[in-house]
Amino acid sequence: MGYDIERFVGYVNEGLLCSICRDVLEDPLQAPCEHAFCTACIHGWLVHHSNCPEDRQMIDVSLLRPLYRYMKNDLNRLQLHCRNREYGCEMVCSLESIDRHERECEYSQIPCSNAGCTVQIERRNLDGHLAVCEYRSRECPNGCGYTILSAEDTQHNCVAELRTELELLRSEMICRVEEAKHEMESRLDSQRRHMVQKESILQNEIEELKSQMSRMMSDVRSLMAAERQHRQELEQAELEKREL
Fold first, then answer.
1. Domain for residue 125, yes or no?
2. Is 202 part of any domain?
3. What is the mean pLDDT of each run of 10 residues along the chain (244 residues)?
4. What's the whole-model pTM score?
5. 138 is in which domain, residue-wise?
6. How many independent structural domains does the chain possess?
């Protein structure tokens, strides 16, 4: 549905009226035949029809396009009253900015934010209503800290509420301790596995070093034996030389 034409100040061009609801175009779309419609109106029409409601030419949703820019500009410049005029708002602004104004309008009827309260009240009076609303929340006047949400809550048992709160705190503390315990155990297990893995790696490295050391000792003994053999051969050669 479009904007009620009675809200507008001055003359409204016929081309800016929806061909279906005959109100001023809201979120407009244009058919190939250049007739314009509110988006909601033309979509509802095409559910049961397949032609333009003005000239009966065949149209499809896929053929609908945004309004021509010059028409869109003319539409946005139209001046109209706030929808809260009946409640006292005297604002007149352009169609382009009316939605922003109405979202913030002090005369808008909005629901009370307290759970259970069904009162609709002007935004400008909301704070005053919240201060006296019977559904407003407040702390127990006896000092137990209980949040009173309704008139029935004023007769609550402070001792029982404190016990309940204490049990909740105790349960929460136990849960936190258990969580900390599990987390610590998990960390210890992880560190233990890491240490075992590291120990295994170090043990392998030690065994490899021992193996290398054994090979080196074997090589040294072989070299020493070769050296003795070479020395004996030299001594034998020296004796043969002397005999000659």
1. yes
2. no
3. 91 92 94 92 92 90 91 94 92 93 92 85 88 74 58 60 82 91 91 90 90 90 89 86 82
4. 0.52
5. 107-147
6. 2
